[in-house]
Amino acid sequence: SYVLTQPPSVSVAPGKTAIITCGGNSIADKSVHWYQLKPGQAPVLVMFYHSDRPTGIPDRFSGSDSGNTATLTISRVEAGDEADYYCQVWDTKRDQGVFGGGTKLTVL
Amino acid sequence: QVQLVQSGAEVTKPGASVKVSCKASGYTFTSYDIHWVRQAAGQGLEWMGWMNPSSGNTGYAEKFQGRVTLTRNNSIRTAYMELSSLRSEDTAIYYCARVRPAMNAFLDPWGQGTLVTVAS
């Protein structure tokens, strides 16, 4: 099965840049989506098709990919960005969705 | 605005079944798929399956094959997820989400989640 690997945690000071990675075999060839999950709230789409931002998501959020790694970058991090972030792709061979294990972003 | 509203929390026993509903508003219900995802306490997101409200076609994650059934009632714009033979490990928040019926599409928006607790 297709596996996505994320670091369990990332910590960053306010105003700095957070980089959250998502590793997968030839992930750059897939469509990668990113979700933000805060306690007690529904998940929110923050990036789709690698680097497209939904309406309402600040331009501090950006996405990129290369080879086996997709990256979600959050610039000028704010306290409100503290959340769990998940990457997601579609495993076309098994015709099912796949999520990474999630990364907890802590704003120091 | 596009919204998915799920049914309330459920407490049920091992071996029983649970059925969670997801009511859609703000868009044409039959034009988008509904996917289901769950999150157990302290765990990550886990994709369970999808349903196309127009055709009724479904697809399930291998892990849940035979235990999960996705259905819908188009007249009331509502999708359902039924999980059977429940065990304590099925205690989780269950989410529905809208997905454009296209290859590699994304989940947006999501329902608010339904907590299902399985305990004897």
Q: In sequence order, what are the helices and strands of chain A, one letter per element?
A: EEEEEEEEE
- Helix tally of chain A equals 0
**Percentage of β-strand residues of chain A:** over 45%
Shape, per Cα inertia axes of chain A: globular
* Poorly predicted runs of chain B: none
Supply Rg of chain A.
13 Å
Major sheet characteristics of chain B: 7 strands, mixed
Oligomer: heterodimer
Helical proportion of chain B, percent range: under 10%
Radius of gyration of chain B: 14 Å
Unreliable spans of chain A are none
Q: Can you give the helix content of chain A as a percent range?
A: under 10%
Overall, the morphology of chain B is: globular
The first-to-last residue Cα distance of chain B is: 40 Å
Number of helices of chain B: 0
The biggest sheet of chain A, with number of strands, parallel, antiparallel or mixed sense and barrel status, is: 6 strands, mixed
Kindly state the mean pLDDT of chain A as a whole number? Answer: 95
Pair with the biggest interface: A-B, 27 and 26 residues
Class inferred from helices and paired strands of chain B: mainly beta
Blueprint of the fold:
The complex is a heterodimer of chains A (108) and B (120).
Chain A: E1 9-12, E2 18-23, E3 33-37, E4 44-47, E5 61-66, E6 69-74, E7 83-91, E8 96-99, E9 103-107
Parallel strand pairs in A: 1-9
Antiparallel strand pairs in A: 2-6, 3-4, 3-7, 5-6, 7-8, 7-9
Chain B: E1 3-6, E2 10-12, E3 18-25, E4 33-39, E5 45-51, E6 58-60, E7 68-73, E8 78-83, E9 92-99, E10 107-110, E11 114-118
Parallel strand pairs in B: 2-11
Antiparallel strand pairs in B: 1-3, 3-8, 4-5, 4-9, 5-6, 7-8, 9-10, 9-11
